[in-house]
Specification:
ATP-binding, six-stranded mixed β-sheet, ABC_transporter-like_CS, globular, alpha/beta, Rossmann fold, nucleotide-binding, disordered C terminus, binds adenosine-5'-triphosphate, four-stranded antiparallel β-sheet, about 280 residues, binds magnesium ion
Length: about 280
């Protein structure tokens, strides 16, 4: 993990273009140790693109990503996992017919050798490990052999999050984890976010529901047209402040904040809010 003043992950001047669309145009953002950071912005603001850049699905056209202070190139999701970044994508990408345990280990199935020779899937290990991760890390109790199609929305979300936890990441990225969920299931996701924080993870959460953003996050980054308008301490802003920044692309916290110039760490968020 990091010492106190090095952000766990920092992005500096990240740009990403798709043809004529400039999805990210100079994003600066820092995520601290054991912090829950909300990422908000209108449709198309660049939120998912930023997340996908952090997990190596997209390569930035310009800018730098630092992990624990060191510049890194994140070539693919496997490289992101090895660094310590786990993700839950906007569509959960679970396989309905497969069991809870199979979904958790999808693409990295544990193998054992019968008689020291013949490789077979180690289902016993998978089931035990799936049950343990869900119980210990997320406080969710489901049968690891149940096909995920039978689970509730909140439980499915838990399985998707648990899949991100299999590699024991420092950072968990959640892209709209509650968008398709009932109220009861949202409460389960809320528990999950709190549990992640209690267990020492840092979280970036994209969410269009500002009520959830306000009750779950420590800080909020507002994205507008591929730029960070401001990063604010959740306790120091109102919902109107956030909506205004999402719509206008201007910080309401005094400072004439320009994404090109601002550094989006907690220090700048504090200083801009007291300016
Ligand atoms: N693979 C892609 N190819 C072309 N354009 C893309 C691609 N991915 C994203 N874009 C464009 O980049 C911009 C940012 O998209 P992005 O998905 O990051 O927005 P978002 O903030 O996540 O929006 P939403 O809240 O609707 O999920 C949009 O204009 C989108 O059309
Ligand atoms: Mg998105």
């Amino acid at each position: 993990m990091t010492n106190d003043d090095t952000p766990l992950i920092a992005v500096d001047g990240i740009e990403k273009r798709f043809g004529t669309v400039e999805a990210l145009s100079g994003v600066n953002l820092e995520l601290g140790d054991n912090e829950v950071l909300g990422l908000v912005g209108d449709n198309g603001a660049g939120k998912s693109t930023l997340i996908k850049t952090l997990v190596g699905i997209h390569q930035p056209d310009a800018g730098e990503i630092r992990y624990d202070g060191d510049p890194v190139t994140i070539e693919n999701p496997k490289a992101a996992r090895e660094l310590g970044i786990g993700t839950v994508y906007q569509d959960l990408a679970l396989v309905d017919e497969l069991s809870v345990a199979s979904n958790l280990f999808l693409g990295r199935n544990p193998i054992k050798k019968i008689g020291g020779l013949i490789p077979v899937l180690d289902e016993e290990y998978m089931n035990e490990e799936a049950e343990r991760i869900l119980r210990e890390r997320l406080n969710i109790h489901v049968d690891p052999e149940t096909p995920v199609e039978y689970l509730s929305g909140g439980e499915r979300q838990a399985i998707a999050i648990a899949r991100a936890l299999v590699t024991d990441p420092d950072i968990v990225l959640l892209d709209e984890p509650t968008s398709a969920l009932s109220k009861a299931a949202v409460n389960e996701v809320e528990e999950l976010v709190f549990t992640l924080k209690e267990n020492g993870h840092s979280v970036i959460i994209i969410d269009h529901n500002l009520e959830e953003i306000f009750s779950w996050t420590d800080r909020i980054a507002i994205l507008f047209n591929g730029r960070v308008v401001d990063v604010v301490d959740t306790e120091e802003v109102t919902r109107d402040d956030i909506v205004s920044m999402m719509i206008s692309g201007q910080s309401v916290l005094g400072d004439d904040t320009d994404a090109d110039e601002q550094t989006a760490g907690s220090e700048s968020a504090t200083s801009s809010s007291t300016a």
